[in-house]
Amino acid sequence: LNRRLAEFGTTIFAEMSALAVRTGAINLGQGFPDTDGPEEIREAAVRALRDGRGNQYPPGPGVPELRAAVAAHQQRRYGLSYDPDTEVLVTAGATEAIAAALLGLLEPGDEVVALEPYYDSYAACIAMAGGRRVPVTLRPHEGAFRLDLDELRDAVTDRTRLLLLNTPHNPTGTVLTREELAAIAELAVERDLLVVTDEVYEHLVFDDAEHVPIATFPGMRERTVTIGSAGKTFSFTGWKVGWVTAAPALVTAVRSAKQYLTYVASGPFQYAVAEALALPETYFTAFRDDMRAKRDLLAAGLTEAGFGVHRPAGTYFITTDIRPLGFGDGFAFCRALPERAGVVAIPNAVFYDHREAGAPFVRFAFCKRTAVLEEAVRRLKALA
Ligand code: PMP
Ligand code: GLN
Question: Is 93 in the pocket of ligand 1 (CB under 6 A)?
C-alpha cells in the first residue's frame, strides 16, 4: 500500500457489516435500506436489460434520458438550469463523483476545507488527489452539530482550492441553514474557491428543515460541483448511479478523471433511474414521511435506552452520545456491541481527524423496517 493510502486501511463500513454477518447482529451500521426501492423502477431496469438498452458501454457522460431527467429534477425542485449535454455527468454512484471531482480539480498540495466529521471517502480521495485536508469541526450545540462560521473563515488560506460540503450531513444529520449557506457562498466568492457539495440526502429532510443547494446562491453556479445519487433517494444502493451537475468547464474536469476510473457504469440502471427521477412528488413525500417516522421511533428508543440523542434534521442516521451510559470510547463500544446487545453501529471517530472530538459519538442507521428497529431498541435497552 502506498504512502497516500497507508493511513486508511479497511473502510469502517466493510468492517462493521462483516461483524454483523459474523455475529448475526442487527446491522444499524452501514447506511443501506433493508427494503428495495419501487417495484415499477425495478421493472424499468428489467425492461432496459431485456430490450438491450445499456447492456453495452453507455455514452461517456451518461445516457441522454438520465442526463435529461437529472437536469429536469434540478430545475423543478430548485430552479437550477443545467444543460443536459454539457452540464450533467452520470457517475458510478456519488462515491465516484467525489473521487473524480477531487482528482480532476485539485493540484498536488492544494488544501481542501471539509466539515468534520466527514464521510470516510473524502479523506481518502483528497489523499489520492495529492491534496491536504483541513477539517472544520461541527460541534454539539443545543442538540445539533453546528458549524462555526468564524472557524470556517479561519481555515481558508492562500492554498485553499475548494470547500467540500455535505448537506444533509452524514453522520450528524445536520442540515445547513439558508443563512449558513449564504455565508459559506460569500466566503467562496470572496476567496475565489470552488465548492464540491455532496447532496445525496437532499430528499431526506424533516420537520421544518429545508434542503437548499449552495449552487442557488449568487456567484455559486459557476464555481459549484453538485453531487446526487439514486442509491439514497430511491433505495437502490447496489445500482451505483450518481451524477454531477456543474458549469461546463467543471464537468469537463470531473469527466476527465472519471473516464479513466470507470469510463462508464450501470448501463441498464441508468434508464431506470431516469424514470425514478420523474416519479410524482407523492413518491418523494411518502419516502420522507416513512423515514421521519423511523427516525422518531429510533430516537425515542435510543433515548429510553439511555443514549444522548442528537435528533437529525436530515439523512437516515442518528448520532448518539454514549457518555450518559457510562462509556467514552465509541470504537470499543461498537466493537463490543454485537456481543453485548446484538446490534451493530458505527463509531463516529472514524470520520474525524481530531479523533478525540469524535470519541464519544456513535451512529445508528434507521433506514430499516419498523420491526427491525423495534427489536434493535429492545436489545439496546438491555444495555443500561
Ligand atoms: N456521500 C455520502 C454523504 C454518503 O453517505 C454516501 C453513502 N451512500 C455516499 C456519498 C456514496 O453514495 P453512492 O452509494 O451513490 O456512491
Ligand atoms: N454511505 C453509507 C454510510 O454512510 C455507506 C456507504 C459505504 O459503505 N461506502 O453508511
Answer: yes
Q: Closest ligand 2 atom to the C-alpha of 30?
A: 10
Q: What is the ipTM of this complex?
A: 0.97
Look up the pTM and report it: 0.97
**Burial (CB count within 10 angstroms: exposed 0-12, middle 13-18, buried 19+), residue 1:** exposed
CATH 3.90.1150.10 maps onto the chain at 12-30+282-381
The protein residue whose alpha carbon is closest to atom 9 in ligand 2 is 13
- Could you report the per-residue pLDDT of 246-290, keeping only the tens digit for each? 999 999 999 999 999 999 999 999 999 999 999 999 999 999 999
- Architecture of the structural domain at 39-277: 3-Layer(aba) Sandwich (3.40)
17 in contact with ligand 2, CB cutoff 6 A: no
Ligand 1 atom nearest to 240, measured from its CA: 15
Rounded-to-10 torsion of CA 198, 202, 206, 208: 90
Tell which atom from ligand 1 comes closest to the C-alpha of 119.
3
Fold of 12-30+282-381: Aspartate Aminotransferase, domain 1 (3.90.1150)
